[in-house]
Amino acid sequence: KLFDIIKEYSEFSSVEATYAWLQDNGFERDSFQFVRFNIPFYALPLVNFFIINEMGISNYNELLQILEQLQNSPSYNIKAMSYWLRDIELEKYAPVFAKNLFVNF
To answer: 16: burial class by Cβ within 10 Å (0-12, 13-18, 19+)?
Structure first.
């Protein structure tokens, strides 16, 4: 069972995590644009007004506010680091990063 979970995890991209996070936070309508622009989860706090405007999203104030809240959330750094390591195929080094407290993204 554990290997099935690991296999599913490896097939789940950080862009899909972005989609799921936006869906969970009430931005269902805008989540597809983030997938279309290939925005990974770890890059969400870097999204600014200009990027959102390029996507054609009109309700940007609320979206920018929730992206800022994400960056300040306690779990963001850990999730972002794990998705980033997986996207560059270095997920086997995640325990080393965690052990040495390299979790600030």
So the answer is: middle
Coil, helix or strand at residue 102 = coil
SS3 label, residue 60: helix
As a dihedral over the C-alpha atoms of residue 22, residue 19, residue 42, residue 56, rounded to 10 degrees, the angle is -70
Interhelix angle 14-24/28-36, rounded to 10 degrees, is 160
Distance CA 99, CA 105 (A): 15
Beta strands in 35-89, from DSSP E residues, in sequence order: none
- Tell me the pTM: 0.74
Better-predicted residue by pLDDT, 69 or 59? 69
